[in-house]
Amino acid sequence: MSTVVASRVTRRYGERTVLDGLDLEIERGEFVALLGKSGCGKTTLLRALAGLDPVDGGTLEVPERRTVVFQEHRLLPWWKVWRNVAIGLPRATARARAQSALEEVGLDKHADAWPVTLSGGEAQRVALARALVREPELLLLDEPFAALDALTRLRMHGLVRDLTTRHRPAVLLVTHDVDEAILLADRVLTMRDGRIAAAHEVASEARDRGSAPFAALRHALLGELGVVEPLEHA
Amino acid sequence: MSTVVASRVTRRYGERTVLDGLDLEIERGEFVALLGKSGCGKTTLLRALAGLDPVDGGTLEVPERRTVVFQEHRLLPWWKVWRNVAIGLPRATARARAQSALEEVGLDKHADAWPVTLSGGEAQRVALARALVREPELLLLDEPFAALDALTRLRMHGLVRDLTTRHRPAVLLVTHDVDEAILLADRVLTMRDGRIAAAHEVASEARDRGSAPFAALRHALLGELGVVEPLEHA
Amino acid sequence: GDNEAAASDSGGRKKVRLTYGAISVPKTRGVFEKTLNDQGIDVEWVGPFPNHAPTLQAVATNTADFSFGGSSTPADQALLSGNKLVYVAWSKSTPRTSSIIALPNSGITGVKDLAGKKVAVNKAGLGEFLLVAALEKYNVPRDSVTFTYLNPPDAAPAFGSGKVDAWSIWSGPLELAEVQYGAKRIFVDGDELDKQIDFGSYLVRDDYAKKEADTIRKVIAAYKAEQDWANANPAEAQKIGNAVSKYPQAVVDKLVGENVQVTWSLINDEGIAQLQAGADWLSDHKVLSDKINIADHAVKL
Amino acid sequence: MSTTAIAGPARTAEAGATPPKKRAVPYRTISWTVPVLLLLAWELASRSGLIAANVLPAPSSVGTTAWHLTETGELPHHLWESVKRAAVGLAIGATVGLVLGVLTGFSKLAEAIIDRNIQIIRAIPFLAILPLVMVWFGVGESGRYFLVALGTMFPIYLNTVLGIRQVDPKLLEMGRVVGLNRLELIRAAILPGALPSILLGLRLALTNAWLALVIAETVGAPAGIGFMATNAREFLQTDVIVLVIVLYALIGLTTDLIARALERRFLAWHPNYHGGKK
Amino acid sequence: MSTTAIAGPARTAEAGATPPKKRAVPYRTISWTVPVLLLLAWELASRSGLIAANVLPAPSSVGTTAWHLTETGELPHHLWESVKRAAVGLAIGATVGLVLGVLTGFSKLAEAIIDRNIQIIRAIPFLAILPLVMVWFGVGESGRYFLVALGTMFPIYLNTVLGIRQVDPKLLEMGRVVGLNRLELIRAAILPGALPSILLGLRLALTNAWLALVIAETVGAPAGIGFMATNAREFLQTDVIVLVIVLYALIGLTTDLIARALERRFLAWHPNYHGGKK
Ligand SMILES: Nc1ncnc2c1ncn2[C@@H]1O[C@H](COP(=O)(O)OP(=O)(O)OP(=O)(O)O)[C@@H](O)[C@H]1O
Ligand SMILES: Nc1ncnc2c1ncn2[C@@H]1O[C@H](COP(=O)(O)OP(=O)(O)OP(=O)(O)O)[C@@H](O)[C@H]1O
Ligand SMILES: [Mg+2]
Ligand SMILES: [Mg+2]
Question: Which residues cross the membrane (chains D, E) (predicted)?
Fold first, then answer.
């Protein structure tokens, strides 16, 4: 039985139908990546799953304990970094847990900084730490790695993968990086016209960047996103 | 003679020295990409060049007419999208110019929308349109493509390249995408410890994703950023 | 009413709630209170109040029992507005010193010179009546004079700085203006008019008057005794007042020198007649919104 | 651990014709109900004798008084005088407050020169400076305009400064890098951003305007509802006292409606005022 | 087209020992200079006879009066009475205003029930309801507390509502998704976000408190600086009138210093209040 079940979900803004009878299921412990053009409705879907926006039609079933990493960091400017991470945690252990989460994202030194003093990537990592320090049943990630350099990004990938294998939440990751999607996810979806246009199970061989299945899946996904790229060098 | 000359630029936040005697020159019409770890000071440098922050030491020479695309979109929420693009333009032609700039970024349909209704990538594109519609002598771009899907990103690359060949501004592009840096820039810099750690001229052969020079440069840059990746499949 | 508790204490002692103004000789001297205490009446002072109207309201709404001996004009109007109050005592004074004054270099030497000028008066009070009466007496058309409504605190600086040309005002501010600004009297109430329009008065709720006649008599008698003392000892009385008003000595001397005698009495036929005459004048001059029959609102005790 | 709890806000059982997005509370109905109920309760309490007429006359009798005074032309006359004074004073006060507020909000130097003085002056209640106003302005209209301007200027000043402080500095930077000059920056970024706050300043200022008038019209004013109120107080005309209070309440109501309309007009973009999703 | 123009703000010629970041304007110096200069000018004008003493006595003579009244214990007594009333009234008014403001800002239903009534009531100047207050509360302290509470509650209410409206809805959403309950959400996101606005409401409320006292202390108050002012006006004691005005100014000054300290304490994070870069 699936943790997340969305069926025939519809969402309109005025004339425009952004989600148009979308179906989606995610199992417990499953890591799903969602690709799609800018403005195709990924964030809208995520917000509906998070329970932040109502939908105009269809049904949604989601677990109670959800956490979202938004496209923007959304740190409280009036709380120091560590309190932002610790927000809502039981007091006794809050500081310690926040500190160790910050250590994991490489920002333990910034624990007592104000959020305004963080760089773009640092803020994004704090937001990630804030989500990971909780142990949700559903983790919704909206481009959490977009502002990170290659190395930091790899470290964050490792972090998320660790967490998901440990606590096995259902994960929905919105990303624009096809490689990232393949390397992290069990299943990669592409979205178009308000629906899930295609789904690809990721075989474990495909997780190797140098492998042929990786290149093939990458090519297929880019094709679905409308990018035609030469395959020859694979 | 260079359009941008920064020499021995220093910038401190409290104890921390973020820019530490940094030297940088950019010629007219030159497209420079800047890579570096999250929090290494890229935005700080950009802001100093934009004249937004003072520096603690060193000298800066920059042209009067500069434009910045910030890491966040910074659209005025109380102005419709087209007015945000047209901001500061002479009234007579404002709407028309904004409209055509929006068309170029694929958002002509959103000209009369409020900024809050835009998706992350759409907002980023509007910010890009706002910068491109002016004709600056120095264009400072802080991760302008981070929230874009692969296809849209390619289109935006084309757009920026067009503009730069037409008006020949000096361009400084901060990005985390090594491929993007190589494909767009004449010169790729990496930043570390508050200075420019390395500079690579990009030969025109290297602009081909399938080519060996591309792979080599990519490998070198990733190495400088601390990422070790297998080269074998090149 | 529910004022039983307020009016009588345990052990047959009575309690009265008296209103007072910023200057109150009875309250300050203490003799008054002792006199009443000896007669089994405890005094609670409520206030201070700036003028008669709010004390009338305090009485009407049963937060006090006696109004504070002020002007009869607002009392008349309050009665016309349906408040269930009654006159229980009234006073007249001689000489009546209220005057219209002007600055020495204003070129105003008499009432006739007021035409085309601005005169400060307190609205619907002594100041306005005096001016109206003065203009009538000297046949100056009312609309040739600008009535500028100002309460004394605001009128003084306006007068002193020449923003108004003349001021119709009563004792106290009058002498102060004379001393401070060198003002001259061009029309004096007692010298020029044969009738008093505005009287001192005490009012109580009508049900209180019915039930507590004895208490009222004792209180008014005590007030009258205080006034008699003040009449006999003008210098001491002024001294008490001046602890609050802090007038310059020259003003105090002037006030003492005028030796104004105020006579209080319980409401009697003369009181009703005089109050009625004053009220009629006020009604005729549209100061009061209607005719009033004082006898209906007065209790002879 | 439950795997398939159904989340409250996300539950949507086959939404049909009426989408569940519609606002649940019929705002208008409720917001008018309470005042109307209060009015009815008051009338009933008066008629049943629960409230004595000389303490608080019934609304209907206040209505009668209002009608009388309107017939004689007295009420419209007073009202008009006061409205005129409020308008002129407010126009002056709002302009001064806005200009000073923009200066203070915009420039550290201006703040250093202006702010402390204003903080000092605004602490002085109008009533206390009435005698000085008399000396400075005499007893004409100008003194009354001055008092109203004084009373209205401060909330507008303070709220303008607050509003400007709260404008996102990121937007100001953006304005600078696209090459706006100061005036354009004010027009594009500062005023719109500060607008909710400035509109609130205006609301507060309007209240102060009426309060200032009550005080100003005790001084040398031959008309105005403050004058009317003072007179009524002086003569214990309870029905007029209450009528004046009702008038103020109506003025407050009208003001509120106008302010809301302004907000609807100018803050259409603001997600917390009307509509908007994120 | 110039290729190498040197941009104004970015120009930094070999910055040496003193970094050019330091604030150019010595804020404190300037902000104290103006009031002090005004005071001096006033004193000079008085001494030179430019201003007549019976219109506006010199600061030094006001000082003497203040000294006298302090020696006799009169001034401290009046001041203490007023401060006590202001404090009690403000405590009540601020609490009510804050609670109602949070309710309105937070819930559409509460807004529908509360807001219009408050908008109506707050339009009624205190002075106009003085007679009713006497009816309701008599002439004791409670009526004065009521008036102060009434005067202070509205700016706090309005500014609280404004502050809450201006809290970034994105942060509220964040609060919801990390599982905060309502109270935690108020504590974590709403109050801190609304704080600049609430503090401004408090500033405005303090002014209103003193104004309310001037009015409340005209009736039945045997002490207080409002009483002192009324008396001084009644008996034309110009020096006391001016002393009272100076007292209010000093109160304003103190209030401002306290408010600034509060802002420094609570808004340390706010880039537009103190420090911060972006
Ligand atoms: N409140 C709104 N009113 C009207 N249109 C809206 C609103 N919110 C979003 N939209 C539109 O709905 C579409 C989908 O938005 P959404 O944020 O889901 O896109 P997305 O897939 O997340 O894009 P991106 O990758 O750029 O973030 C966009 O075209 C956007 O303009
Ligand atoms: N106002 C400030 N006060 C203190 N430290 C600051 C301030 N602004 C930035 N920093 C610190 O300076 C460093 C450089 O910041 P900067 O924004 O330049 O990084 P960046 O290279 O742009 O990183 P990213 O790729 O994550 O955007 C960061 O570690 C940041 O925490
Ligand atoms: Mg999105
Ligand atoms: Mg950055």
Answer: 86-107, 119-139, 145-164, 185-204, 210-228, 240-262
